[in-house]
Amino acid sequence: MKRKLSTIDISLVGMFVALMAIGANITSIAPFMVIGGVPITMQTFFAILAGAILGSRIGAISMCVYAFVCLVGVPVFAKFSGGFTHLFSPTFGFIVSFIFTAYVTGKIIEKKRTLHAYVLASLIGMSINYIFGTNWMYYAYKLWAAAPEGFTYSLAWLWMIVPLPKDIILSIAAAVFAYRFNRTLVSRGYFKSLSKTV
């Protein structure tokens, strides 16, 4: 039986929504970090961290809330944008993928809490983000968005090569940080609700 969200759960969900908004808008101070219409952000890092620290359930909820607050108009997406029209954006698939990224990352770690498991879970979470988001982007361009001239499935993946090294490094960094976090603050009882499987 799933336990109800505690006050600390709700607070941490809010915190990760804010972190996702910050990660999404790094391009606002570095506008050149946009390749082929895809912003190079730190959202993948924070989505992985959400699953690794909050667990599969709360981590996924935090990503659902993040997507929801944008769709209702709060400017938490890249370039401080928001609104229902984002649902039809070719890059919205990456936003949806964050829910699965957080959930799968957390689920793997809940089964085995070794550093190796954290790293493996983070890299799998990142892969889900890339596979789901890139395929969504490709079909969005083909079905309802105005695709760039000469756009192909291979080109969609070629765009993703640019942020890939950064996301691999940040995914591993997220794994190490979450592992150390859970071995210190959580294990000492500062965040008791996080030490339980959620």
Strand order of the largest sheet: 1-2
Strand content: under 5%
SS elements, strand count: 2
CATH fold assignment: Arp2/3 complex 21 kDa subunit ARPC3
User: Helix content range of the residues, please?
Assistant: 55-70%
Report on this structure.
Helix content is 64%, strand content 2%. The protein has one domain (7-187): Arp2/3 complex 21 kDa subunit ARPC3, CATH 1.10.1760. Helix 1 runs antiparallel to helix 2 and helix 3 (56-71) packs antiparallel against helix 4 (92-111). The radius of gyration is 17 Å and the shape is globular. By secondary structure, the protein is an all-alpha fold.
Structure summary:
This protein is mostly helical and 198 residues long. It has a single domain, classed as Arp2/3 complex 21 kDa subunit ARPC3.
What's the helix and strand layout?
Layout: H1 7-24, E1 34-35, E2 38-39, H2 43-54, H3 56-71, H4 92-111, H5 115-143, H6 153-161, H7 164-186
Antiparallel strand pairs: 1-2
Keywords:
single chain; 198 residues; mainly alpha; Arp2/3 complex 21 kDa subunit ARPC3; two-stranded antiparallel ribbon; 2% strand; globular
